[in-house]
Amino acid sequence: MSEAHVVTSLHDRVLTVRFNRPDKKNALTGAMYSALAEAFTGANSNPEVRSVLILGQADCFTAGNDLVDFLAVPPNGPDSPVVRFMRSLANLEKPVIAGASGIAVGVGVTLLLHCDLVYCGEQTKLNMPFASLGICPEFASSYLLPRLMGHVRAAELLLLGEGFGAAKALEYGLVNAVLPNAEVEATARAKALQVAAMPPRASRITKMLLKKWSLPTINEAVDFEAGYFMAMLKDPEAREAMTAFMQKRKPDFSSFN
What we know:
Oligomer: single chain
CATH class of the domain at 6-181: Alpha Beta
Strand order of the largest sheet: 1-2-3-4-6-9
Order of helices and strands: EEHEHHEEHEEHHEHEHHHH
CATH topology of the domain at 6-181: 2-enoyl-CoA Hydratase, Chain A, domain 1
CATH superfamily of the domain at 6-181: 2-enoyl-CoA Hydratase, Chain A, domain 1
CATH architecture of the domain at 6-181: Alpha-Beta Complex
Helix content: 40-55%
Structural class: alpha/beta
């Protein structure tokens, strides 16, 4: 176990990384980002790891950032925990499989863009509410989403910030398959075991070739977006949006231009 709210285990050459903060809907803190970065970086250098499996629970993948923690200790540079997490997952050489069910919000959606295989629960609710929170897209999503699904669909998800279901995630190419929530973990684990049983060098090179042509741009996008994201966290728009969210009231942006 690398940290109380991020549990890791290695069995049958599959490294399982589980969000384990169900009482807070697996909302991610700075400490959790550090633990995730450590787990993914360690997976790269560990020859016993042939695939990585990312899980939450059947009723919740992750609700995204813990806003209280995020505002108390906002990311302030390229070495902040959240940016290290993003780089470690984007550059992970081993195949990554995700099983997402229940709730996937913000980075809980954008991290799926950096997984090789994604299995989603049929009752899953996904959302990327960056603009509605007064901030901007992150984790290279402004690059990857239009490339994956086209500009207008990406704009719909990012500009409007409205929630969408598993069927739309499948239609838009975000996930490989939609399953009953209770079957997601077993299916994702079976795929991770299947990948782990493959010739390991062939798997790594196949993944490298799939990502070679886009990875430099992904790394550039992570840093470029982060520069705007970190600055926007200090803006009045974001403060109003996030304060209203925590106070469960409608935000008022009428005085901003």
